[in-house]
């Protein structure tokens, strides 16, 4: 497995580490998303402890309005985080 493929598998595994806790095993509830963000993205997303921030992120990600974030919706967050990280690297 290449380094990139290994990282992709890691992202999937982290998603599932949190998605299996409550409700459907392949989606994140708001509580699961908050736990993932506050644990895994604490240095990347500002105000992760603020419930209003988590609510806004969840609302933005939940494109179909089912009160769950599936993997495809979660990828929107990762894409945004990666773009910001890439831009920040070039600022340094």
What is the topological layout?
Blueprint: H1 3-19, E1 27-28, H2 30-40, H3 51-61, E2 69-70, H4 71-91
Antiparallel strand pairs: 1-2
Helix pairs in contact: 1-2, 2-3
Characterise the protein shown here.
- The chain has 92 residues and is mostly helical.
- The chain has one domain: EF-hand (Recoverin, domain 1).
- The protein is 65% helix and 4% strand.
- It is built from four helices and two strands.
- The chain has helices spanning 3-19, 30-40, 51-61, 71-91; strands at residues 27-28, 69-70.
- Helix 1 packs across helix 2 (30-40).
- The longest helix is centred in the last third of the chain and has 21 residues, at 71-91.
- The N and C termini lie far apart (31 Å).
- The model has no long low-confidence stretch (mean pLDDT 93).
CATH topology: Recoverin, domain 1
Tertiary shape: globular
Level-2 CATH architecture: Orthogonal Bundle
Poorly predicted sequence stretches spanning 5 or more consecutive residues = none
Task: Tell me the span between the first and last alpha carbons.
Answer: 31 Å
According to DSSP, the number of beta strands is 2
Indicate the mean pLDDT.
93
Write the H/E string, N to C: HEHHEH
CATH class: Mainly Alpha
Report the structural category.
mainly alpha
The Cα radius of gyration reads 13 Å
